[in-house]
Amino acid sequence: MNILFIGDIFGNPGRKMVANHLADLASSRAVDLVIANGENAAGGFGITPRLVQELLGAGIEVITGGNHIWDRKEILEFFPKEPRLLRPANYPAAIGEGVYKGVSKGGVEYAVMNLQGRVFMANTDCPFRAADRLLEALPASCKIRIVDLHAEATSEKVAMGWYLDSRVTAVLGTHTHVPTADERVLPKGTAYITDVGMTGPYDSVIGVNKEAIIQRFLTQIPARFDAAENDARLAAVLIEADVETGRATRIERIQVRGD
Ligand code: FE2
After folding, report:
1. Residue 47's closest CA among 23, 61, 64, 59?
2. Are 248 and 144 in contact (CB under 8 A)?
3. Contact 11, 40 (CB under 8 A)
4. Ligand 1 centroid distance, CA of 39 (Å)
5. Sequence-distant contacts of 43-46: CB under 8 A, at least 24 apart
6. What is the pLDDT of residue 72?
7. Which of the residues 21, 68, 150, 175 is marked catalytic?
8. Model pTM?
């Protein structure tokens, strides 16, 4: 089974890359399941119900979130209507879910879990214990298990990879918007990468207009952060998994550049 995970879709440039390239990528790589982090799909901050529908319509089956998932207030009441939109499971919030259980087009049962790190991030419940609870609640018949760990610190993400090795198909990092070159299949069969990277404008500071961010660093005065536009790229990983065991056999980093 081939699973494509698309890193943080940022603003209009990110959504355009999905609209223009996902179908080709999915057919050329024989992809069975597409998952994407979409918490920055709306102008770089949050996601709206309309954009959830747009991304699901483009062929993404499950959308994961993170610290920005709450940015647009209309999303709060939309959560109960769309189980394929996730928020980190270890948020104390009672809105939305942190896990989605589905069946792929090829008839394979799968689960997508969303967690958020605690190092240099908001105070949430422990993501490691949250992972234990989510996994305990999954039926044994569900072998394909994908975790999006939305986190800042590389150490916390690497630790989660080792913690879940053998228990899930993949632990994939999001949030920093910077792709890392450490993709590998861990010894007990879990595919791992510290950060998939951003699907959005790379002529920027992690998606935002670079001049505004540089000024902020120079002056420490808060400024308006607008989404950048140029050098759009789609960042993703392709995971090949054995449906009988749920183990990953291969992980490949993918970057598609826009025109
Ligand atoms: Fe984030």
Report:
1. 64
2. no
3. yes
4. 7
5. 43/11, 43/12, 43/227, 44/10, 44/11, 44/200, 44/207, 44/208, 44/225, 44/226, 44/227, 45/71, 45/72, 46/70, 46/71, 46/72, 46/75
6. 95
7. 68
8. 0.97
What residues make up the domain containing 19?
Answer: 2-257
Q: Which two tokens stand for residue 177?
A: 């918007």
Please give the pLDDT value at position 143: 98
Residue 85 has pLDDT above 90, yes or no: yes
Task: Give distance in angstroms: CA of 40 to centre of ligand 1.
Answer: 7
CATH code of the domain in which 37 resides: 3.60.21.10
Distance 91 CA to ligand 1 centre (A): 13
- Is 68 assigned a catalytic role? yes
Q: What is the count of structural domains for the chain?
A: 1
* Model pLDDT for residues 9-20, shown as the tens digit of each residue: 999 999 999 999
pLDDT at 259 over 80: no
Question: Do 127 and 116 meet the contact criterion of CB atoms below 8 Å apart?
Answer: yes
